[in-house]
Specification:
This protein is an alpha/beta fold and about 270 residues long. The chain contains 9 helices and 12 strands. Helix 4 packs across helix 5.
Amino acid sequence: MSALALAGVAASLGGRPVLGGLDLELRRGELLGLLGPNGAGKTTLLRVATGVVAVTRGEVRVAGRPLASYPRRALAREIAVVPQETSVPFPFTVAEIALMGRAPHLGLLGFERAADRRAAERALERLGIAALADRSVQEVSGGERQLAVVARALAQEAPVLLLDEPTAHLDLARRVALLELARELVAAGRSVLVVSHDLSLAARFCDRVALLAEGRVAAVGEPGDVLTPERLRVVFGVESQVLAGPGGPVVVPTASAKGAPEATGGP
């Protein structure tokens, strides 16, 4: 059974088609990379997968059940999301942000239990930011704020984790550490989908990658099979070399290709 499956999914934003008849499966116990140029529809796909954007055609299934059959709290116990951008207008502490991930598990009165606080603390420790627990998220760096949001998703303890460019604000060491953590989660049985613009890093850590172009899956499979110079030329509009690295293929762009794809403007 798939952890998450999209079958023939089409979606529009503002009346403009963004996803068109897309099929994609996130397997149980898998780290799947979602790659593609700006405007390909990657963020929209994640919003469709969590019901934020409605489909105009097709079906989304979570753990074998139609997405529409899940009440919001029940869905939040199945899927945790780290969005591309997170605004925190109030001076919550890093610990409070992590504890917010426990909301789907709280009782009617909404009081946190000791187990909820421990889950939040474990998430901070796994991300190496426990020392920031009492700091306001408005007083830490952008990368540390991003890790606090990741901690919120970890504390949610959902079997499926969707990460939308989670390494965008992180330095190289923390990028690697975060993807190593994703691999640990997968080894423990969870399923992780990560959107990334770093093709080589995704190839190093992901079991499979899906290449999205103009709202459709151009290719999906093992990184070495998907990331070829010919396909990167068509999808990204770049000439590149794909070298054999110690953990997977390494993509080295060399020049813009003639006839590069135009941005569609979709998320």
